[in-house]
Specification:
Layout (H helix, E strand, L loop, with lengths): L1 H26 L5 H25 L9 H25 L3 H12 L3 H13 L1 H28 L3 H8 L43 H17 L2 H18 L12 H4 L1 H11 L2 H12 L9 H28 L7 H12 L5 H8 L4 H28 L4
Helix pairs in contact: 1-5, 1-12, 1-16, 2-6, 2-9, 2-11, 2-12, 3-4, 3-6, 3-13, 4-6, 4-13, 4-16, 5-6, 5-12, 5-14, 6-8, 6-9, 6-14, 13-14, 13-16, 15-16
Length: 389
C-alpha cells in the first residue's frame, strides 16, 4: 500500500509544484497578466509545436501508430459528449450555460496536464502515445465545442447577467472568470474574434456572426501549432520510413544524425513546453464570486472530475472484457491523462466568444484544476492498486 501511495504521489506532486510556482510568481509580482499572456503565446507557438513534432518523429515505425486506440478514444469522447447533452438539461435552466456544462463532460486539459501525467506514469512511451493522440483528440474537442456552443448560444444572456459579452464593448484578451483567456492557450482553436458594437440591436447579424466565428475557429484548428507540429512530425516519420537504406542498414538521411545540431535545438525547446505551460496555468488561477451559478459550477466540476473518468474507464474495462481492446500500462496512463484531467483553459475563450457563460467556464477551469490534483491522485492510486499501472 505504501509503495502505491508513493507512486501516485510522485506522479501528481511535480505537476502541483509547478502550478504553485505559477501561483506564487503571480502573487509576488514576478509574473503579471501581460507577461503570462506573452509567455503562454510563446510556449504555444514554439515549445508545444516542437514537443509535438519530436514525440511523433521519434516513433520507431509508421506501423506503430495506434489507429485502433485513437478510434476508441474518440468513441468514448463522443459518448461523454452525449452524456453531457443529457445531464446539462437537468443541471441548469439557462441555455447559455448548457454548452459550458456539456464541455465539462468531455473536454479535458489534455495538452497542459495530460502530457506530463502520461510521461510521469510510464515514461517516454506514454508521452509518445499521448502526443499522437493529440491529433484526433484536439480536433474532436474543437469541432464538438463549435457545434455545442453554436446550438446553445445566447449572447444576450451574458450581457444581461454580467453587463459584458459579445454585445458589450469589452476586450476578451484580459480574460473572463479570473483566467487569462488568451486564444492561443493549450489545445487552441478559438482564435481572435470580432466583437459586435454595443450599439448593435440584439440578434442583428446573428447568422453572419455564427458563420464568421465558425470559419475563424476552423481556421484556428488548421493553423493550430499543436496540429501543425503533429502533422509535420507525421510527414517526417512517413518520409523516414520510405527512404532507402545504405549498405550499413541505416537510412540515407536522418535528422538526428545528419542535422543533429538542428534536431538537438528543437528537442531542447520541446523540453521547456510542459513546465512553462503548468507555471502559466498556475499564474492564471484567480477565484471569483460564484453566486448565481453555484449549482451549475458544482455539477460541472463533479462531472469533469468524477463522472467522466468513471464512465470512460467503465467503457475501457468493458472493451477489454469483450476483447475489443488490448491495453498495457502505457494506454492506461494516457487514458488517465485524457479522461481524468481538469477542464481545458481554452474552453473559456470559446464559451465567451460564442455566446456561452464565460464566467461559469472560467470557474470550472479554476476549481477543477485545484480539485483535479486530488482526483488524479485517487485515479492513479486505484489503478496502481489494481495492477493496471
Amino acid at each position: 500500500m505504501g509503495s502505491v501511495f508513493a507512486y501516485s504521489f510522485s506522479a501528481v506532486m511535480p505537476i502541483i509544484l509547478l502550478i504553485l510556482i505559477g501561483v506564487l510568481a503571480r502573487r509576488t509580482g514576478y509574473l503579471d497578466i501581460d507577461t503570462l499572456r506573452k509567455l503562454n503565446r510563446f510556449n504555444f507557438r514554439y515549445a508545444l509545436f516542437a514537443l509535438m513534432f519530436v514525440n511523433i518523429y521519434e516513433i520507431e515505425s509508421i506501423h506503430n501508430i495506434p489507429v485502433k486506440t485513437a478510434a476508441f478514444v474518440v468513441a468514448v469522447l463522443l459518448i461523454l459528449f452525449l452524456f453531457g447533452v443529457f445531464y446539462s438539461r437537468f443541471a441548469t435552466n439557462e441555455r447559455f450555460r448548457r454548452g459550458v456544462l456539456i464541455q465539462s463532460a468531455f473536454r479535458s486539459n489534455y495538452a497542459v496536464i495530460g502530457l506530463p501525467v502520461s510521461e510521469t506514469l510510464v515514461g517516454a512511451s506514454g508521452l509518445q502515445l499521448a502526443s499522437f493522440l493529440q491529433l484526433p483528440v484536439v480536433t474532436f474537442f474543437n469541432f464538438m465545442c463549435v457545434l455545442t456552443l453554436s446550438i446553445f448560444s445566447d449572447p444576450e444572456a451574458e450581457y444581461r447577467y454580467y453587463g459584458e459579452g459579445p454585445l458589450a464593448d469589452a476586450s476578451y484578451s484580459e480574460g473572463r472568470g479570473g483566467v487569462i483567456a488568451d486564444p492561443s492557450h493549450d489545445e487552441g482553436g478559438a482564435g481572435n474574434m470580432t466583437d459586435i458594437s454595443p450599439a448593435a440591436p440584439a440578434g442583428e447579424h446573428n447568422t453572419g456572426m455564427k458563420r464568421s466565428r465558425l470559419a475563424k475557429i476552423l481556421r484556428g484548428i488548421i493553423t493550430n501549432p499543436l496540429i501543425q507540429g503533429l502533422m509535420l512530425g507525421l510527414i517526417a516519420l512517413i518520409i523516414r520510413n520510405i527512404l532507402p537504406l545504405r549498405k550499413d542498414g541505416q537510412i540515407v538521411f536522418s535528422l538526428q544524425r545528419d542535422l543533429s545540431w538542428l534536431y538537438s535545438a528543437v528537442k531542447s525547446l520541446s523540453r521547456t513546453a510542459t513546465p512553462i505551460a503548468l507555471i502559466v496555468l498556475g499564474g492564471q488561477l484567480e477565484l471569483k464570486e460564484i453566486e448565481g451559478y453555484r449549482r451549475e459550477l458544482i455539477s460541472g466540476i463533479l462531472v469533469r472530475l468524477i463522472a467522466a473518468p468513471i464512465i470512460s474507464f467503465s467503457l475501457v474495462f468493458l472493451a477489454v472484457h469483450l476483447g475489443w481492446l488490448t491495453v498495457t500500462p502505457v494506454e492506461i496512463a494516457v487514458f488517465v491523462a485524457i479522461f481524468g484531467s481538469p477542464q481545458a483553459v481554452s474552453s473559456i475563450v470559446m464559451s465567451t466568444e460564442m455566446g456561452g457563460d464565460g464566467h461559469l467556464a472560467g470557474q470550472i477551469v479554476i476549481w477543477s484544476s485545484i480539485f483535479g490534483m486530488f482526483t488524479l491522485f485517487a485515479i492513479i492510486f486505484i489503478l496502481r492498486l489494481w495492477g493496471m499501472l
